[in-house]
Every structure is written in C-alpha cells, then in structure tokens.
# Entry
Amino acid sequence: MTEGDFAVGDEVAHRTGGTKMIFTGKSMTGEAICEWFDGARRHQESFAFVALEKYEEPTSSSLSGRAMRG
# Structure
C-alpha cells in the first residue's frame, strides 16, 4: 500500500501478521508511524508504507460460510 491509502486513526497491521496498530502519521523520513498497546505499555514504531495493510478482524469460526445442520 502507499501513503495515500492511509488516514490518521486507521487500524493497520504489518503484512506478515502481528497485532493491530493505529496509524498516527508520517515520519520525517517518509515512513508510517504506528502505535499499539501491549497491556498498559504503549509502543510506537515506524514502518515502510508497503509493509502495512488495513487491519481486518480475524474470523471467529472455521465454519464461516458453511451451512450448519441441526
């Protein structure tokens, strides 16, 4: 993805997986600044825009999309 695909406050994740993060802006070096919490501890890191994607909630069931029989 590119810089224009994100707005401040968007929920994002690293393309290789990991925790949900919030896009908080662009660094002076042109990277995406993201924040997330691990319990009460706040983390902040910058990533290349191409390494991020919009966050999607994981599906809760392996049966999603299948008809259930009763």
